[in-house]
């Protein structure tokens, strides 16, 4: 999915380059304006590629909102058109996941803690992908305790409003006996 999005995002730039070369003649001032614009875009892209902190912060904020059981904060971190997959199930958009799966579970949770979280993000222009590992413990109102080891991968997109998660895939299993 990320590769397809990157391929699609490259098409307008290629079309723009082709469009400029198809005009044949450009005035000197238009060429200088285009060069200055290109340098600004190149500087902007270099700065974006060097900074993954915002994407990491979005993933950390999701984990923090989950432990706080803050549905509003979680929802704000996801793009309107998002996809959530959990333990082999397509949950639909985050809005659907919250309404039909996670939301009802939040009411039954008395404590949710993460242990040993790791997050690594790779940025690719206006997109990034994240890889996470963690353990977690959930204590339920009925007294049950759930201890798990988990992993997650995510795809994020960046726009003027910051980072949003567009795809999130998590899975977990009982801890291995050591």
UniProtKB/TrEMBL annotation:
Residues 56-171 form the SnoaL-like domain. Residues 18-33 have a biased composition (Basic and acidic residues). Residues 18-37 are annotated as: Disordered. It holds the Pfam family SnoaL_3. Residues 1-15 form the signal peptide. Keywords: Plasmid, Signal. This is SnoaL-like domain-containing protein. It comes from Aurantiacibacter atlanticus.
């Amino acid at each position: 999915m990320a590769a397809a999005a990157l391929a699609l995002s490259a098409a307008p730039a290629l079309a723009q380059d082709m469009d400029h070369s198809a005009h044949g003649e450009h005035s000197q001032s238009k060429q200088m304006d285009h060069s200055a614009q290109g340098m600004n875009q190149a500087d902007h892209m270099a700065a974006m590629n060097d900074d993954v902190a915002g994407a990491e912060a979005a993933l950390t904020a999701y984990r923090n909102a989950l432990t706080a059981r803050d549905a509003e904060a979680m929802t704000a971190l996801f793009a309107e058109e998002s996809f959530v997959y959990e333990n082999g199930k397509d949950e639909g958009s985050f809005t659907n996941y919250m309404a039909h799966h996670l939301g009802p579970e939040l009411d039954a949770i008395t404590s949710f803690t993460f242990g040993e979280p790791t997050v690594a993000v790779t940025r690719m222009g206006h997109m990034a992908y994240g890889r996470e590992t963690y353990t977690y413990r959930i204590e339920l109102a009925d007294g049950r305790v759930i201890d798990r080891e988990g992993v997650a991968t995510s795809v994020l997109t960046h726009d003027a409003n910051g980072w949003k998660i567009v795809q999130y895939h998590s899975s977990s299993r009982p801890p291995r006996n050591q």
